Amino acid sequence: MERAALLRRLTWQTGTVISTISETPRVKTIVLAVADWSGHRAGQHIDVRLTAPDGYQTERSYSIASAPEDDHLSITVERLDDGEVSPYLVDELREGDELEFRGPVGGHFVWDDDLGGPLFLVAGGSGVVPLRAMLRHHQAIGSKVPVRVLCSARSLELLIYRDELKELAADDLIDISITLTREPPRSWRGYRRRIDPAMLSTTGWATRKEPLTYICGPTAFVETAAAGLVALGHDARRIRTERFGGTGV
Amino acid sequence: MEPLDGNAMAGVLRDLFGRDMTTMGYECPGCRRTGVVAEMAVYMSGPGTVARCRDCDTILLMLTERRGMYCIDLPGMPQPVLPPV
Amino acid sequence: MAVTRGFIGRRAAESSRVPPGQYVTRDFPVLSAGPTPYTPLDTWDFTIRGAVDKPVSWSWAEFQQLPHEKFTVDIHCVTKWTRLDMAWSGVPLDTFLDAVPTQATYALAFSDGGYTTNIPLADLRGGKAWIVDEYDGRPLEPEHGGPARLLVPHLYFWKSAKWIRGVELRTTDQPGFWEMFGYHNYGDPWKEQRYYGD
Question: In what residue span(s) does the FAD-binding FR-type domain sit (chain A) (predicted)?
């Protein structure tokens, strides 16, 4: 394609914050009421735009945390201490506030029942957010696709959706493994190290099952997980990845 | 600094092309790697957005905004076929 | 334009030191158009080439021996942040240019990783530009352009090429990486020369 100049189309819309939920000491879920929400696919994200009184604007992408079937659109935001947008969203935004965004966007890191499985969902830190949307969608439609999940977090306190993951694990079709990389409790029976090929092999599927894999997390985490699975013999074309700038896990 | 990936460009590309562009294919002019836009290594912190080949760093897509007008260059997509709306 | 309640963002400072359209930050944002090169110091050199009789290079050790200046300047980035009072140490470009006679009037700085930016040669002379290898009393971090970067504080910060390896002297102007892509050829923050045609 030749270089092209294109006029921007303005597609920003507004949602009203109906509640915020503390997931961990530095992570909040923001639930939005949106008039005429077009619907979304599990795994998609929205771009949020903030505008200061002096006209300064800045925008960031956040994964949608809710399933398409949920009543409201929600995002889950991790507070980055040197961030410009996330401290506002986590500390300042409250019920009744309006939030400007565009979306849903993204057609690659999405899962519907048609795409089948078996599914292997690998999350580092807040990378669990779009995977949670997929899990909720899986539950909502009564999918028969078997799912294995591997979540890496620094500690149990920093594991996002801890209670919900416990409930999901009660489903016969869903297996959830958790690794805590920094401060596992003494009684912790799960993994207590960073992800590696051995862990991916034990918690995931055999290559002959030809799983469909989704990996989301900080860039270094995603590279490690994707390279590990390819080294184990998994087809790179069946591995979808999403990287974000954030804190390590 | 660690690059993001092409998923991070989904919003702006959707805005410009009126459809999802992250599933669009590319071929790297440097090393011939093929893939989809979502897999590109993306640097967004500079004056514009630069998307590179994950294997050889060749530039595949550049995007700058100039007061509401966007300029886009797609060296990784010499004959792009736009995905359906 | 809908203002987001409670969002302040970067503060627009009413100061004679802040150019129009800029916001003051206390951070040092990392701006990159590609991967960080991490060039080993024993293979690093700085070269003046192009419209000269013979290219001249300085090894890292030779560069270290050159008299360094410590100075404090304000930095203005085209992405709208301004940071006041940044303390650097480096070698004035005059030191290198005085060693290489030339008829050139333009310069194209080139870096590891393929980045380039063009600057009129006069803007690199007269103590207005440096090759810096130290920020805030410490060796310049790779993510901020270390081991050494160009610093031209009177122009927008994209002109201060990170990971600099040399300057090509030219009799004709050659737009660099961002200049070729719609950014202003000169980039004076006080005239808000952000884009081509400003």
Answer: 10-111
